[in-house]
Model the fold of this input.
Amino acid sequence: MSGRHEKDKGVNVQVLLRCRPFSEDELRSNAPQVVTCNDYQREVAVSQNIAGKHIDRVFTFDKVFGPLAQQKDLYEQAVVPIVNEVLEGFNCTIFAYGQTGTGKTYTMEGECKRAKSGPNGELPSEAGVIPRAVQQIFDTLESQNAEYSVKVTFLELYNEEITDLLAPEEISRIASEEKQKKQLPLMEDGKGGVLVRGLEEEIVASATEIFTLLERGSAKRRTAETLLNKQSSRSHSLFSITIHIKEATPEGEELIKCGKLNLVDLAGSENISRSGAREGRAREAGEINKSLLTLGRVINALVEHLGHIPYRDSKLTRLLRDSLGGRTKTCIIATVSPAVHCLEETLSTLDYACRAKNIKNKPEVNQKMMKSTLIKDLYGEIERLKAEVYATREKNGVYIPKERYYQEESERKAMADQIEQMGVLIETHQKQSEEWRERHDARVRQCSDLSSKLSATEKNLNQTIKLLTCTEEELTKCRYGLKERDFRV
Ligand code: ADP
Ligand code: MG
Done:
């Protein structure tokens, strides 16, 4: 099957480029255009003036969407196939990467206020990838007459802290008073992934419900303004849709197919270069950028095939580990502005996006679960939660002082890092010992060559000695004969 072939070789991360139209401000100030898109050739040209010389740099991507491309065009050409794969049981991730104000949120969420939707609940033309994906998922599932469930989560990652954008109001109000509670911890799920402890999973029953959720979530996102120093430009948001679909085997067994779509609106990429310089001096700036910086390092390590990939260094890369070099199908939408005042950031986005084209993932379809196994898992989960509720109520769980908890957490992390380093060390040692073994084998071979040569030479020598003895005997005989003849004469 072609699937196996694909699996062995790996599939490149798909990278798309979108250039937004000029904003009204830019039009008013007559900002010169430096980015030209050729959607058909899949090329983007950037013109620069260096020392009075006009230089054009051209970049090629898997798809290019110029300023005239509508939300619908991008969705139909780039996202429809991805959502179909999610429905087939793959995990897929779409990242939006780019400078603040270039259209990441516009592309991912769009303008999708319920008030703007059409008469029959159809999506407004400005709706972005998230509402369209939800719509496509429900349309497909309903047309298949399948039994299914759709769950969504929506979180924000700011300053290495996770906030649930779907948490019910009253909880988040209490939480904001009690600040520590608001942050949700990341936990290993025991299957090689991580999960966000306590994250609200909202079951969605129809596409229109998504408006309510998005409105609720987006309102919570810290601020809608896109000025450089505003928090919204420094936070990442992750919207995930998980689909379970019931299937029946010919034998009448019930199987559950599962697919997940992650939609990531990253922090503004200018934060890497600008406040990144202050990292270390200002802890906050460092923390804010940690996830974006680590994402860049992970991409570099993957592209350059370095042994150690620093996934563990940030929450973003821990959460999305499988989307970078893993079993998930991944797509990056890089966004740029056409105007000259963004030139430097535009070039850095284009370079970054080009690099990311070289990442290879090994997509694998999720294994179908037997319904009975799934139910058993869920019962287990219910038992665990019950015990937690009980422990909290009775206060007979394990309670440790916060300082100790943090200390133990940091010790645990240090140990995990140490283990990782040791792993690398072991690998190096193994390589070295292999080298030594090879050298040893070569020496042994050389030795046995030499000893066989030696025994051949010895044999030769013996023969020569024998020959010599015979010759000497003959010589003596001859001499004797000669003397005898002389004597007779
Ligand atoms: P980001 O999330 O990257 O900071 P936004 O999505 O907030 O950027 O976009 C900034 C502004 O530009 C918004 O007012 C948005 O409506 C507008 N915009 C972005 N991309 C497009 C586009 N392709 N077409 C029309 N308007 C756009
Ligand atoms: Mg945004």
